[in-house]
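Structure in, sequence out. Go:
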């Protein structure tokens, strides 16, 4: 942990709002990115950021420093994101207008029509496949392949043993491969 972050945490614990603001500024972009990748839309990702830091502020005295502050914040954000997803499933609501694809295509200088069609098919399949993953599989996959966290960090963030973390990532990859196989096979 950086000295400035440790000092900011110590000051924030005493009620220093400016110190907590520094922590928010340092970590809010990565929390937004995680929230977006887990929930699939910007509005929910913004809620994840707001709720994560609200909860962190309220529970700052519980932060014991065993894990990095970043990992602690990620755990709060992951838990809240998964709560949002579970709530969405229970209510069976879809926000089609606000829904953004989980994966953005990489812009080429001037892609051909066939490439645009193919990219759209892959994006749609991947987005649908990501939604079909369990919350745990999706979170583990996103933390590993989008955020680049280690197995230990993912396990700590999600509260899983290393074997369960690896298994969740493996199952997610297998499901995504099966879902993308028809599109990928057509490209060969």
């Amino acid at each position: 942990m950086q000295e400035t972050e440790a000092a900011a945490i110590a000051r924030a614990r005493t009620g220093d709002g400016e110190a907590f603001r520094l922590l928010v500024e340092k970590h809010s972009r990565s929390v937004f990115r995680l929230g977006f990748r887990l929930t699939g839309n910007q509005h929910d990702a913004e809620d994840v950021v707001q709720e994560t830091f609200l909860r962190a502020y309220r529970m700052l005295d519980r932060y014991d420093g065993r894990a990095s502050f970043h990992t602690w914040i990620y755990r709060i954000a992951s838990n809240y994101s998964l709560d949002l997803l579970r709530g969405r499933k229970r209510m069976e609501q879809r926000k089609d207008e606000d829904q953004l694809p989980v994966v953005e295509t990489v812009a080429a200088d001037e892609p051909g029509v066939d490439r645009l069609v193919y990219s759209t098919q892959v994006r749609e399949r991947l987005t649908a496949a990501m939604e079909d993953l369990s919350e745990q599989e999706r979170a583990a996959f996103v933390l590993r392949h989008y955020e680049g966290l280690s197995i230990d960090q993912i396990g700590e963030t999600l509260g899983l043993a290393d074997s369960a973390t690896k298994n969740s990532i493996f199952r997610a990859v297998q499901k995504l491969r099966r879902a993308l196989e028809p599109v990928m096979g057509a490209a060969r």
